[in-house]
Protein backbone atom coordinates (compact mmCIF):
# COMPACT_ATOMS: atom_id res chain seq x y z
CA UNK A 1 0.00 0.00 0.00
CA UNK A 2 1.38 3.41 -1.00
CA UNK A 3 0.82 6.39 1.31
CA UNK A 4 1.24 10.15 1.07
CA UNK A 5 4.90 9.94 2.15
CA UNK A 6 5.66 8.08 -1.10
CA UNK A 7 3.30 10.01 -3.38
CA UNK A 8 4.48 12.98 -5.44
CA UNK A 9 1.85 15.62 -6.32
CA UNK A 10 4.12 17.25 -8.92
CA UNK A 11 2.85 15.33 -11.99
CA UNK A 12 -0.61 16.84 -11.44
CA UNK A 13 0.56 20.39 -10.72
CA UNK A 14 -0.75 22.90 -13.24
CA UNK A 15 -2.87 20.28 -14.99
CA UNK A 16 -6.55 20.61 -15.85
CA UNK A 17 -8.99 17.77 -15.15
CA UNK A 18 -12.32 17.34 -16.94
CA UNK A 19 -14.78 15.28 -14.93
CA UNK A 20 -17.46 13.74 -17.13
CA UNK A 21 -20.49 13.05 -14.96
CA UNK A 22 -21.56 14.43 -11.60
CA UNK A 23 -23.11 11.45 -9.88
CA UNK A 24 -21.77 9.13 -7.19
CA UNK A 25 -18.07 9.40 -8.05
CA UNK A 26 -18.14 12.48 -10.27
CA UNK A 27 -19.26 14.88 -7.57
CA UNK A 28 -16.87 13.56 -4.92
CA UNK A 29 -13.85 13.45 -7.19
CA UNK A 30 -14.49 16.90 -8.67
CA UNK A 31 -14.77 18.50 -5.22
CA UNK A 32 -11.81 16.63 -3.72
CA UNK A 33 -9.60 17.56 -6.67
CA UNK A 34 -10.69 21.18 -6.50
CA UNK A 35 -10.03 21.35 -2.78
CA UNK A 36 -6.58 19.89 -3.45
CA UNK A 37 -5.82 22.85 -5.71
CA UNK A 38 -6.44 21.17 -9.07
CA UNK A 39 -8.23 23.02 -11.89
CA UNK A 40 -11.45 21.13 -12.55
CA UNK A 41 -14.22 21.35 -15.14
CA UNK A 42 -17.38 19.28 -15.16
CA UNK A 43 -18.81 17.94 -18.41
CA UNK A 44 -22.57 17.39 -18.45
CA UNK A 45 -25.03 17.03 -21.29
CA UNK A 46 -27.08 20.19 -21.87
CA UNK A 47 -30.18 20.19 -19.69
CA UNK A 48 -28.76 17.74 -17.16
CA UNK A 49 -30.55 17.83 -13.81
CA UNK A 50 -27.15 17.87 -12.11
CA UNK A 51 -25.98 21.07 -13.80
CA UNK A 52 -27.46 23.41 -11.20
CA UNK A 53 -26.02 21.32 -8.37
CA UNK A 54 -22.53 21.39 -9.87
CA UNK A 55 -22.64 25.14 -10.47
CA UNK A 56 -23.90 25.60 -6.90
CA UNK A 57 -20.70 23.93 -5.72
CA UNK A 58 -18.70 26.61 -7.53
CA UNK A 59 -17.64 24.36 -10.39
CA UNK A 60 -17.40 25.27 -14.07
CA UNK A 61 -19.91 23.24 -16.10
CA UNK A 62 -19.63 22.74 -19.85
CA UNK A 63 -20.95 20.33 -22.45
CA UNK A 64 -18.72 17.21 -22.46
CA UNK A 65 -17.03 17.97 -25.77
CA UNK A 66 -16.21 21.49 -24.58
CA UNK A 67 -15.05 20.33 -21.16
CA UNK A 68 -12.44 17.95 -22.56
CA UNK A 69 -10.90 20.41 -25.00
CA UNK A 70 -7.40 21.20 -23.75
CA UNK A 71 -7.85 19.08 -20.60
CA UNK A 72 -4.81 17.10 -19.48
CA UNK A 73 -6.88 14.41 -17.78
CA UNK A 74 -10.40 13.35 -18.68
CA UNK A 75 -12.12 11.28 -15.99
CA UNK A 76 -15.05 9.28 -17.32
CA UNK A 77 -17.24 8.97 -14.23
CA UNK A 78 -20.72 8.48 -15.69
CA UNK A 79 -22.38 5.03 -15.38
CA UNK A 80 -20.40 2.28 -17.11
CA UNK A 81 -23.09 1.51 -19.67
CA UNK A 82 -23.04 5.11 -20.96
CA UNK A 83 -19.26 5.49 -21.25
CA UNK A 84 -18.80 3.98 -24.75
CA UNK A 85 -21.16 6.50 -26.35
CA UNK A 86 -19.70 9.34 -24.26
CA UNK A 87 -16.19 8.45 -25.37
CA UNK A 88 -17.27 8.27 -29.00
CA UNK A 89 -18.67 11.78 -28.68
CA UNK A 90 -15.53 13.33 -27.17
CA UNK A 91 -12.70 11.32 -28.73
CA UNK A 92 -11.95 13.81 -31.50
CA UNK A 93 -11.78 16.68 -28.98
CA UNK A 94 -9.21 15.01 -26.70
CA UNK A 95 -5.83 16.65 -27.01
CA UNK A 96 -2.85 14.48 -28.03
CA UNK A 97 -1.16 12.86 -25.06
CA UNK A 98 -4.05 13.46 -22.66
CA UNK A 99 -4.86 10.89 -19.98
CA UNK A 100 -8.17 9.04 -19.96
CA UNK A 101 -9.08 8.10 -16.39
CA UNK A 102 -11.63 5.58 -15.12
CA UNK A 103 -12.97 4.69 -11.67
CA UNK A 104 -13.83 1.14 -12.81
CA UNK A 105 -12.09 -1.05 -15.36
CA UNK A 106 -15.15 -2.61 -17.03
CA UNK A 107 -15.19 -0.68 -20.32
CA UNK A 108 -11.47 -1.15 -20.95
CA UNK A 109 -11.21 -4.73 -19.74
CA UNK A 110 -14.12 -5.92 -21.88
CA UNK A 111 -13.17 -3.80 -24.87
CA UNK A 112 -16.26 -1.59 -24.87
CA UNK A 113 -13.93 1.38 -25.35
CA UNK A 114 -10.78 1.29 -27.46
CA UNK A 115 -8.90 4.52 -26.67
CA UNK A 116 -6.71 6.31 -29.18
CA UNK A 117 -3.13 5.08 -29.19
CA UNK A 118 -1.71 8.46 -28.14
CA UNK A 119 -3.68 8.60 -24.89
CA UNK A 120 -2.60 7.41 -21.46
CA UNK A 121 -5.29 5.13 -20.04
CA UNK A 122 -5.30 5.09 -16.26
CA UNK A 123 -7.58 4.11 -13.40
CA UNK A 124 -8.01 5.41 -9.87
CA UNK A 125 -10.77 3.36 -8.26
CA UNK A 126 -11.78 4.41 -4.72
CA UNK A 127 -13.01 1.35 -2.81
CA UNK A 128 -16.28 2.81 -1.64
CA UNK A 129 -19.12 5.15 -2.59
CA UNK A 130 -18.53 8.74 -3.58
CA UNK A 131 -20.38 10.14 -0.58
CA UNK A 132 -17.93 8.39 1.75
CA UNK A 133 -14.95 9.49 -0.36
CA UNK A 134 -16.04 13.11 0.01
CA UNK A 135 -16.89 12.80 3.71
CA UNK A 136 -13.55 11.22 4.58
CA UNK A 137 -11.68 13.90 2.66
CA UNK A 138 -13.50 16.60 4.64
CA UNK A 139 -12.52 14.85 7.88
CA UNK A 140 -8.86 14.86 6.90
CA UNK A 141 -8.89 11.15 6.18
CA UNK A 142 -8.97 9.15 2.97
CA UNK A 143 -10.35 6.09 1.20
CA UNK A 144 -8.26 3.23 -0.13
CA UNK A 145 -8.00 3.34 -3.91
CA UNK A 146 -6.77 0.93 -6.55
CA UNK A 147 -4.49 2.43 -9.20
CA UNK A 148 -3.68 0.96 -12.61
CA UNK A 149 -2.33 1.84 -16.03
CA UNK A 150 -3.66 0.10 -19.13
CA UNK A 151 -1.87 2.23 -21.73
CA UNK A 152 1.24 4.32 -21.11
CA UNK A 153 1.50 6.37 -24.29
CA UNK A 154 3.52 9.21 -22.75
CA UNK A 155 5.81 7.18 -20.51
CA UNK A 156 4.59 9.17 -17.51
CA UNK A 157 1.20 7.56 -16.85
CA UNK A 158 2.05 5.88 -13.53
CA UNK A 159 3.33 8.98 -11.68
CA UNK A 160 0.29 10.89 -12.94
CA UNK A 161 -2.03 8.15 -11.69
CA UNK A 162 -0.50 8.24 -8.22
CA UNK A 163 -0.68 12.05 -8.10
CA UNK A 164 -4.37 11.89 -9.02
CA UNK A 165 -5.00 9.35 -6.26
CA UNK A 166 -3.22 11.59 -3.76
CA UNK A 167 -5.34 14.59 -4.79
CA UNK A 168 -8.45 12.52 -3.99
CA UNK A 169 -7.07 11.98 -0.49
CA UNK A 170 -6.42 8.27 -0.94
CA UNK A 171 -2.84 8.40 0.33
CA UNK A 172 -3.75 9.75 3.75
CA UNK A 173 -3.21 7.90 7.01
CA UNK A 174 -5.63 5.04 7.42
CA UNK A 175 -6.03 4.64 3.66
CA UNK A 176 -3.50 4.10 0.87
CA UNK A 177 -3.12 3.36 -2.82
CA UNK A 178 -2.85 -0.24 -3.99
CA UNK A 179 -1.30 -0.95 -7.38
CA UNK A 180 -3.54 -3.18 -9.46
CA UNK A 181 -4.64 -3.87 -13.04
CA UNK A 182 -7.81 -3.13 -14.97
CA UNK A 183 -8.52 -6.87 -15.14
CA UNK A 184 -8.11 -7.53 -11.43
CA UNK A 185 -10.12 -4.48 -10.39
CA UNK A 186 -12.94 -5.39 -12.77
CA UNK A 187 -13.18 -9.06 -11.86
CA UNK A 188 -12.89 -8.55 -8.10
CA UNK A 189 -15.41 -5.71 -8.11
CA UNK A 190 -17.99 -7.52 -10.23
CA UNK A 191 -17.52 -10.72 -8.22
CA UNK A 192 -18.08 -8.86 -4.96
CA UNK A 193 -21.19 -7.18 -6.33
CA UNK A 194 -22.66 -10.43 -7.62
CA UNK A 195 -21.55 -13.01 -5.09
CA UNK A 196 -20.77 -11.30 -1.78
CA UNK A 197 -21.64 -7.85 -0.43
CA UNK A 198 -24.29 -6.56 -2.84
CA UNK A 199 -25.67 -9.85 -4.10
CA UNK A 200 -25.43 -12.56 -1.44
CA UNK A 201 -25.61 -10.48 1.74
CA UNK A 202 -28.94 -8.71 0.98
CA UNK A 203 -30.40 -12.02 -0.20
CA UNK A 204 -29.25 -13.68 3.05
CA UNK A 205 -30.82 -10.88 5.11
CA UNK A 206 -34.13 -11.29 3.30
CA UNK A 207 -34.04 -15.07 3.66
CA UNK A 208 -33.38 -14.78 7.39
CA UNK A 209 -36.17 -12.25 7.83
CA UNK A 210 -38.64 -14.42 5.88
CA UNK A 211 -37.67 -17.53 7.86
CA UNK A 212 -38.33 -15.87 11.21
CA UNK A 213 -41.62 -14.30 10.10
CA UNK A 214 -42.83 -17.62 8.68
CA UNK A 215 -42.06 -19.15 12.10
CA UNK A 216 -44.34 -16.62 13.80
CA UNK A 217 -41.74 -14.05 14.92
CA UNK A 218 -42.93 -10.44 14.91
CA UNK A 219 -41.75 -8.73 11.67
CA UNK A 220 -40.25 -5.78 13.55
CA UNK A 221 -38.21 -8.11 15.75
CA UNK A 222 -37.18 -10.18 12.73
CA UNK A 223 -35.96 -7.01 11.02
CA UNK A 224 -33.98 -5.92 14.07
CA UNK A 225 -32.34 -9.32 14.41
CA UNK A 226 -31.59 -10.08 10.78
CA UNK A 227 -30.98 -6.63 9.28
CA UNK A 228 -30.23 -3.95 11.86
CA UNK A 229 -27.43 -5.93 13.50
CA UNK A 230 -25.53 -6.06 10.21
CA UNK A 231 -24.10 -2.59 10.88
CA UNK A 232 -22.79 -3.76 14.25
CA UNK A 233 -21.05 -6.65 12.52
CA UNK A 234 -19.60 -4.40 9.80
CA UNK A 235 -18.28 -1.92 12.36
CA UNK A 236 -16.65 -4.68 14.40
CA UNK A 237 -15.04 -6.31 11.36
CA UNK A 238 -13.72 -2.97 10.12
CA UNK A 239 -12.28 -2.09 13.52
CA UNK A 240 -10.97 -5.49 14.63
CA UNK A 241 -11.04 -7.92 11.70
CA UNK A 242 -13.02 -11.16 11.63
CA UNK A 243 -10.86 -12.76 14.32
CA UNK A 244 -11.27 -9.71 16.56
CA UNK A 245 -15.00 -9.64 15.91
CA UNK A 246 -15.29 -13.18 17.24
CA UNK A 247 -13.47 -12.14 20.40
CA UNK A 248 -15.85 -9.20 20.91
CA UNK A 249 -19.15 -11.09 20.75
CA UNK A 250 -20.66 -13.32 23.42
CA UNK A 251 -19.80 -17.00 23.74
CA UNK A 252 -23.40 -17.75 22.83
CA UNK A 253 -23.16 -15.76 19.61
CA UNK A 254 -19.76 -17.21 18.76
CA UNK A 255 -20.91 -20.80 19.23
CA UNK A 256 -24.01 -20.19 17.15
CA UNK A 257 -21.86 -18.69 14.40
CA UNK A 258 -19.44 -21.61 14.45
CA UNK A 259 -22.32 -24.09 14.06
CA UNK A 260 -24.53 -22.21 11.59
CA UNK A 261 -22.03 -20.45 9.34
CA UNK A 262 -20.13 -23.44 7.90
CA UNK A 263 -23.38 -25.39 7.49
CA UNK A 264 -24.94 -22.61 5.40
CA UNK A 265 -21.83 -21.50 3.48
CA UNK A 266 -20.67 -24.95 2.44
CA UNK A 267 -18.69 -26.27 -0.52
CA UNK A 268 -21.78 -25.90 -2.69
CA UNK A 269 -21.86 -22.15 -2.09
CA UNK A 270 -18.14 -21.89 -2.82
CA UNK A 271 -18.64 -23.93 -6.00
CA UNK A 272 -21.33 -21.51 -7.18
CA UNK A 273 -19.08 -18.56 -6.28
CA UNK A 274 -16.34 -20.02 -8.46
CA UNK A 275 -18.91 -20.35 -11.25
CA UNK A 276 -19.85 -16.68 -10.85
CA UNK A 277 -16.18 -15.69 -11.10
CA UNK A 278 -15.63 -17.91 -14.12
CA UNK A 279 -18.63 -16.36 -15.82
CA UNK A 280 -17.08 -12.93 -15.48
CA UNK A 281 -14.00 -13.94 -17.45
CA UNK A 282 -15.91 -13.42 -20.70
CA UNK A 283 -17.91 -10.40 -21.82
CA UNK A 284 -21.37 -11.84 -21.11
CA UNK A 285 -21.97 -9.53 -18.14
CA UNK A 286 -20.86 -6.45 -20.08
CA UNK A 287 -23.21 -7.39 -22.92
CA UNK A 288 -26.06 -7.89 -20.43
CA UNK A 289 -25.42 -4.46 -18.93
CA UNK A 290 -25.47 -2.84 -22.36
CA UNK A 291 -28.69 -4.65 -23.32
CA UNK A 292 -30.34 -3.71 -20.02
CA UNK A 293 -29.52 -0.05 -20.57
CA UNK A 294 -30.73 -0.14 -24.19
CA UNK A 295 -34.10 -1.47 -23.01
CA UNK A 296 -34.37 1.17 -20.26
CA UNK A 297 -33.49 -1.20 -17.41
CA UNK A 298 -36.59 -3.47 -17.28
CA UNK A 299 -34.98 -6.03 -14.95
CA UNK A 300 -33.61 -3.45 -12.54
CA UNK A 301 -36.83 -1.46 -12.48
CA UNK A 302 -38.87 -4.59 -11.73
CA UNK A 303 -36.53 -5.66 -8.94
CA UNK A 304 -36.62 -2.18 -7.39
CA UNK A 305 -40.43 -2.32 -7.35
CA UNK A 306 -40.35 -5.77 -5.75
CA UNK A 307 -37.92 -4.64 -3.07
CA UNK A 308 -39.94 -1.51 -2.29
CA UNK A 309 -43.11 -3.55 -1.74
CA UNK A 310 -41.57 -6.37 0.31
CA UNK A 311 -42.56 -7.34 3.86
CA UNK A 312 -39.00 -6.58 4.96
CA UNK A 313 -39.29 -3.01 3.69
CA UNK A 314 -42.65 -2.62 5.43
CA UNK A 315 -41.05 -3.74 8.71
CA UNK A 316 -38.22 -1.25 8.25
CA UNK A 317 -40.64 1.62 7.66
CA UNK A 318 -42.70 0.65 10.69
CA UNK A 319 -39.63 1.11 12.89
CA UNK A 320 -38.87 4.63 11.69
TrEMBL record:
<dbReference type="Pfam" id="PF01450">
    <property type="entry name" value="KARI_C"/>
</dbReference>
<feature type="binding site">
    <location>
        <position position="193"/>
    </location>
    <ligand>
        <name>Mg(2+) 1</name>
    </ligand>
</feature>
<dbReference type="InterPro" id="IPR000506">
    <property type="entry name" value="KARI_C"/>
</dbReference>
<comment type="pathway">
    <text>Amino-acid biosynthesis; L-valine biosynthesis; L-valine from pyruvate: step 2/4.</text>
</comment>
<feature type="binding site">
    <location>
        <position position="229"/>
    </location>
    <ligand>
        <name>Mg(2+) 2</name>
    </ligand>
</feature>
<feature type="binding site">
    <location>
        <position position="189"/>
    </location>
    <ligand>
        <name>Mg(2+) 2</name>
    </ligand>
</feature>
<feature type="domain" description="KARI C-terminal knotted">
    <location>
        <begin position="181"/>
        <end position="320"/>
    </location>
</feature>
<feature type="binding site">
    <location>
        <position position="189"/>
    </location>
    <ligand>
        <name>Mg(2+) 1</name>
    </ligand>
</feature>
<comment type="pathway">
    <text>Amino-acid biosynthesis; L-isoleucine biosynthesis; L-isoleucine from 2-oxobutanoate: step 2/4.</text>
</comment>
<dbReference type="InterPro" id="IPR008927">
    <property type="entry name" value="6-PGluconate_DH-like_C_sf"/>
</dbReference>
<keyword id="KW-0100">Branched-chain amino acid biosynthesis</keyword>
<dbReference type="GO" id="GO:0004455">
    <property type="term" value="F:ketol-acid reductoisomerase activity"/>
</dbReference>
<protein>
    <recommendedName>
        <fullName>Ketol-acid reductoisomerase</fullName>
        <ecNumber>1.1.1.86</ecNumber>
    </recommendedName>
</protein>
<keyword id="KW-0028">Amino-acid biosynthesis</keyword>
<comment type="similarity">
    <text>Belongs to the ketol-acid reductoisomerase family.</text>
</comment>
<dbReference type="InterPro" id="IPR013116">
    <property type="entry name" value="KARI_N"/>
</dbReference>
<feature type="domain" description="KARI N-terminal Rossmann">
    <location>
        <begin position="1"/>
        <end position="180"/>
    </location>
</feature>
<keyword id="KW-0479">Metal-binding</keyword>
<dbReference type="Pfam" id="PF07991">
    <property type="entry name" value="KARI_N"/>
</dbReference>
<feature type="binding site">
    <location>
        <position position="225"/>
    </location>
    <ligand>
        <name>Mg(2+) 2</name>
    </ligand>
</feature>
<dbReference type="InterPro" id="IPR036291">
    <property type="entry name" value="NAD(P)-bd_dom_sf"/>
</dbReference>
<feature type="binding site">
    <location>
        <position position="250"/>
    </location>
    <ligand>
        <name>substrate</name>
    </ligand>
</feature>
<keyword id="KW-0560">Oxidoreductase</keyword>
<dbReference type="InterPro" id="IPR013023">
    <property type="entry name" value="KARI"/>
</dbReference>
<keyword id="KW-0460">Magnesium</keyword>
Amino acid sequence: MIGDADLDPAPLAGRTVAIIGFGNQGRAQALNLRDSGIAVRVGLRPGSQREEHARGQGLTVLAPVEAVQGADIVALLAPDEHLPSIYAGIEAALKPGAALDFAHGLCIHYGLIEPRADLDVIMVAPKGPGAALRRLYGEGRGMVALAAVAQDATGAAWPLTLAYAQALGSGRKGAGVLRSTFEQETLSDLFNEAAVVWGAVPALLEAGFDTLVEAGIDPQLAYLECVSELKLLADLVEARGIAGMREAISNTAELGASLGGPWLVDDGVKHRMRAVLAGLSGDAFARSLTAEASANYPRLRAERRTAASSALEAARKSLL
